[in-house]
Amino acid sequence: MKPIFVTGMQRSGTTLLEKLLCNHPRISLLSQPFPLLFVAVKRRFLRLFGEAGIRYPLGDLFLEARYGEEDLRGFLKGLSLGAPDMRALFEEMAGFSGQYTRFAPELCAEVLEHLEPGDLASLLAQLYRSLAHNPGADWCGGKETLWEELLPFLLERGFSCLVILRDPRGVLASLNLGGGLAYGGGLKPTLFNVRNWRKSVAFAFHLESHPRFLSLRYEDLIARPRESLDRITGFLGLEPFTEELFAGGIRGQDGELWAGNSSHRAQSGIDPSSAGSHRELLPPGVGRYLEATCWPELRCLGYPAALEWAEVPEVIRAFADPYEVVRPELRGYAADPARAAEELRRCELLRGGGEGTQVRPFFLFEDVFSRLREGLPA
């Protein structure tokens, strides 16, 4: 079996994509089977810099001064994990709501008995293979949200990787309203969500030429599912999905019909009406702020924006976040003059140009900065 990893921003359609793919007879894809493994690995890495007990160790990576991409990659290459680590994590995940795919204790015990120590990629490949819901699949893997930072390492270690992107206004409407709080883990500052969304886009742009990487838009998946799924099966070298496969609904890994996980309506299949629903759901000021802070990415991804580029700075300056910062560890994302100044500096760099150490803190990669600049109006 060849390993595959699917990720993206929360509420971007990662679960829909995973459920669709696991219906292919040659793909086994588990839904968030080991979320705390990734958290534990990143916390272990951050302890090298004197950081301990961080609630959100993933981070959005922007303005990150403690380490660079090569530091993390070197750590991951030298990391050794084995059965004792996974045994402790399976015990910890027993009461964790973020683990969607669970396994019988006797199955875990059997798998861990044969698990060979290795780095994160080796461990994941073994676990995905041993716990595959479809043992006859050619591809085995899992879906976890927000872990784009691991993609360069996993690609280097032979994984194929997919990222799904969604209009950030749709993401926020799904996170903050309706049933979204049950999936997203409670309200977070708008800028926290903005920067995590931009992280996802940055990695999608940076890796787009890699032969084992593919990104797609949620809106394309729900509007033209056949075309999107054909792209994926072609990417994986598999036969297309059969025409009638989803006629009776989408089935989960257990073979039962999947009820969907929409924040706003009951659904059991692919529902194209969710695209654009943010217009009726988001407060206007929040929608304008998302357009302002994500304006270059929206343009490059083909999403519409009512704002003109010249209006962006004033919208950023005037924004007051209606979502209260209830988590002390996220107070650094409050909509205050310091955060506004960071966002305005990002706009200045896009207007005036920059290179190297100037742009990486704000754009993660120089090629992403160049890509976004090219999308600005002349």
Q: What's the layout of helices and strands?
A:
Elements: E1 2-8, H1 14-21, E2 27-31, H2 35-46, H3 69-78, H4 83-93, H5 105-113, H6 120-130, E3 139-143, H7 151-156, E4 160-165, H8 168-176, H9 180-184, H10 190-206, E5 213-217, H11 218-223, H12 225-236, H13 278-281, H14 284-293, H15 295-301, H16 312-318, H17 337-352, H18 360-363, H19 366-374
Parallel strand pairs: 1-3, 1-4, 2-3, 4-5
Features of the shown structure:
alpha/beta, Rossmann fold, 46% helix
Question: What is the compact description of this entry?
Answer:
By secondary structure, this protein is of the alpha/beta class. Helix content is 46%, strand content 7%.
Describe this structure in words.
α4 (about 85-95) packs antiparallel against α5 (about 105-115) and α16 packs antiparallel against α17 (about 335-350). The protein is built from 19 helices and five strands. The mean pLDDT is about 90. The protein is α/β, with parallel strands linked by helices and about 375 residues long. It has a single domain (about 1-375), classed as P-loop containing nucleotide triphosphate hydrolases (Rossmann fold, 3-Layer(aba) Sandwich), CATH 3.40.50. Strands 2-3-1-4-5 form a five-stranded parallel beta sheet, with helices on both faces.
Instruction: Give the number of domains.
Output: 1
Provide the CATH superfamily: P-loop containing nucleotide triphosphate hydrolases
Shape assignment:
globular
Give the SSE order as H and E letters. Answer: EHEHHHHHEHEHHHEHHHHHHHHH
Largest sheet: 5 strands, parallel
Q: Spans with pLDDT under 50 lasting ≥5 residues? A: none
CATH topology: Rossmann fold
